[in-house]
Amino acid sequence: YFSAAATVTDRVMPQAETLRDQLIGFAGNELICYRAPADERELYAHQQQHWDSWLEWAENAHHISLNIQSGIMPVKQDEQSLQHCRIAIEQYDDWYLSCFVRAAQISGSFVLSLAFMHQKIDCQQLFNLSFLEELYQNERWGCDDEAAARQQQLKTDLKDVSDFLQVISAA
Questions:
Q1: Is the Cβ–Cβ distance between 116 and 98 less than 8 Å?
Q2: What is the rounded end-to-end Cα distance, in angstroms, of the chain?
């Protein structure tokens, strides 16, 4: 945990506001708001089944109401919702902020990382939800060794974040 602690001291503390802005950037481009195009109904339904409840949770728990878009065109999020995202992360000190930022960097999702920080999901669920489309495609077409190794590394990285979160929570 020395490396994680050094990161907090050397990188997070001096630029905490920049990192909070980075998190708001993740919210502005929220992964779980981008859905498969209409011609991929099965994947779209899979995304809906696994992601919609987390968007509902964010709205109910934090007043974060995000827009959903099919396809890859950018979706514009409401400024008020982004302000609620900022309010949701203001509670985190530098130590927790480092975990939140790392979870969002790995997962690509503000909402799922927020749920992780609130202990609504664990690191395995965070991985499964954030890489939902990739895992779905793996089930359909198989997974090559390189992709499997990358996925394992991401799981390990998320587990490290989870372990560090437990350490600082116990302190």
A1: no
A2: 13
Backbone torsion region of residue 71, taken as left when φ is above 0, otherwise alpha when ψ lies between -120 and 50, otherwise beta: left
**pLDDT by residue (tens digit) across 6-64?**
676 667 676 889 999 999 999 999 999 999 998 999 999 999 999 999 999 999 999 99
User: Residue 136 has what pLDDT?
Assistant: 95
Interior/surface letters 109-138, b for 16+ CB within 10 angstroms, e for the rest:
bbbbbbbbbeeebebeebbebbbbbebbee
- Dist. CA 5–CA 144, nearest whole Å: 35
Is residue 69 classed as helix, strand or coil in its secondary structure? Answer: strand
Q: What are phi and psi of 65, to 5 degrees?
A: -110, 110
CA-CA distance, 126 to 130, in Å (whole number)? 6
* Residue 64 backbone zone (phi > 0: left; psi -120 to 50: alpha; other: beta): beta
Query: Helices (H), strands (E): how many in the chain?
Result: 9, 2
Q: How wide is the angle at C-alpha 67 spanned by C-alphas 129 and 102, nearest 5°?
A: 40
Question: Could you tell me if 111 and 30 are in contact, meaning their C-beta atoms sit under 8 angstroms apart?
Answer: yes
Instruction: Take residue 135 and report the two structure tokens written for it.
Output: 């895992």
